[in-house]
């Protein structure tokens, strides 16, 4: 056969051969990358004024956020190679490390605006609360696998033990203080308990206790009460306790349907505090308008739906650890997004929680990127199981 005939035969075989089975969720990858890219653009836009004032360099926070983004992608690539069996095996060790970090931040943490939440590491400040979220959800997913029958049958040994562990983390977090993270962890934990099969009356009773506890914590701290009262009527004290929310609402009002245009926000000119971190959504609303805000919310909603569907597929494939963890990550992303967007738009009292994969902050970006990589790994192992390909790590565990 001539050389030309060989080439023709190869081209014909390529055109007629079936595409190889994709072993990861490409849509989840693109959704996450889109949110990260939007975050880089909006953090750059929102941080121009404060960056210029603090460093005489308008792109200071852009460079830092870009570095965090690169680091997050590197960490995510590494995490993607870790089998679920290893996360299950070392879940207790990971939770213990998180508790140690929370103790360290109370003893030698960096204080910003009256809150001690960061451990200086030179290149960036580590926020142990972000590590604690993910480590708690990983530990609880493993606990439900090991003690699933107890969770469904008994009250104390199955249902209260997880809450005692949560209580230890909550005490350390409230010492910083960081009530927002405690609420996110509590809501996600309740959702995971419900998915794991806890009895409905226990779930409702403890939910009421949790709500009562949060209300009590708000009442005993004057600054939290000021946040709540300013949330009810921010215009009563627009230059005091209601200042941040009124400035945020002005940003939403100026946004209209299509926004003022990228880079044209007025509120970011140091009228709105924390414009590139907790309140970046207000700058998005002002510059991109209702259409831009809607598209970003659709992307976040799609990511959450992906997490829930991956969890459902994992449970159907009898991969309980991955299923519980995927549901936990989905609820975590959904609730934290709801609180961030709600605080910026005046729906809930202001809380210092980041918008997933968008807000400025190295710890949040890296941990949430890690969570997305774990979702991809769960989906990957489910696809391997569907094709009858046994995971090597799973095989090694059975041999042990």
Automatic annotation (TrEMBL):
Q: What class of enzyme is it?
A: transferase
Q: What is its EC number?
A: 2.4.99.28
- InterPro entries named among the record's database cross-references: Cell_cycle_FtsW-rel_CS, FtsW, FtsW/RodA
Single GO biological process annotation from the record = cell division
- Which parts of the chain span the membrane according to its record? 28-50, 62-80, 87-108, 128-145, 154-173, 179-196, 203-220, 288-309, 321-345, 357-376
Q: Do you know which PANTHER family this protein is assigned to?
A: CELL CYCLE PROTEIN (PTHR30474), PEPTIDOGLYCAN GLYCOSYLTRANSFERASE FTSW-RELATED (PTHR30474:SF2)
Described purpose of this protein according to its UniProt entry? Peptidoglycan polymerase that is essential for cell division.
Name the UniProt record assigns to this protein = Probable peptidoglycan glycosyltransferase FtsW
The beginning of the lineage is: Bacteria, Pseudomonadati, Pseudomonadota, Gammaproteobacteria, Vibrionales
């Amino acid at each position: 056969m001539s050389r030309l005939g060989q080439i023709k035969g190869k081209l014909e075989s390529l055109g007629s051969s079936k595409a190889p089975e994709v072993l990861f969720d490409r849509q989840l990858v693109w959704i996450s990358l889109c949110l990260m890219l939007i975050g880089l653009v909006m953090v750059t836009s929102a941080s121009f004024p404060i960056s210029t004032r603090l460093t005489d360099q308008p792109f200071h926070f852009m460079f830092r956020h870009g570095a965090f983004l690169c680091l997050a992608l590197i960490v995510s690539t590494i995490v993607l190679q870790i089998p679920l069996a290893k996360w299950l095996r070392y879940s207790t060790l990971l939770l213990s490390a998180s508790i140690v970090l929370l103790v360290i931040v109370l003893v030698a943490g960096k204080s910003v605006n009256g809150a001690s939440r960061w451990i200086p590491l030179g290149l960036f400040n580590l926020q142990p609360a972000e590590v604690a979220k993910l480590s708690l959800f990983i530990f609880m997913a493993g606990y439900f696998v090991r003690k699933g029958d107890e969770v469904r049958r008994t009250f104390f040994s199955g249902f209260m033990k997880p809450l005692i562990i949560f209580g230890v983390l909550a005490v350390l977090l409230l010492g910083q203080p960081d009530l927002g993270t405690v609420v996110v962890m509590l809501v996600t934990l309740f959702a995971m308990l419900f998915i794991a099969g806890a009895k409905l009356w226990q779930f409702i009773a403890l939910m009421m206790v949790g709500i009562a506890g949060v209300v009590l914590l708000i009442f005993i701290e004057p600054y939290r009460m000021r946040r709540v009262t300013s949330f009810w009527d921010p215009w009563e004290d627009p230059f005091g306790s209601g200042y941040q929310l009124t400035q945020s609402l002005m940003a939403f009002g100026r946004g209209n349907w299509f926004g003022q245009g990228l880079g044209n926000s007025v509120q970011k000119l140091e009228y709105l505090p924390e414009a590139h971190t907790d309140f970046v959504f207000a700058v998005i609303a002002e510059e991109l308008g209702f259409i831009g805000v809607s598209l970003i919310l659709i992307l976040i909603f799609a990511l959450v739906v992906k997490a829930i569907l991956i969890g459902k597929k994992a449970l159907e494939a009898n991969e309980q650890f991955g299923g519980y963890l995927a549901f936990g990550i989905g609820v975590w992303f959904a609730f934290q997004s709801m609180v961030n967007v709600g605080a910026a738009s005046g729906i809930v009292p202001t809380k210092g929680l980041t918008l997933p994969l968008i807000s400025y902050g190295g710890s949040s970006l890296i941990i949430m990127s890690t969570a997305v990589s774990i979702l991809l790994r769960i989906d990957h192992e489910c696809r391997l199981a569907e094709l009858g390909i046994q995971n090597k790590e799973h095989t090694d565990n059975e041999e042990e």
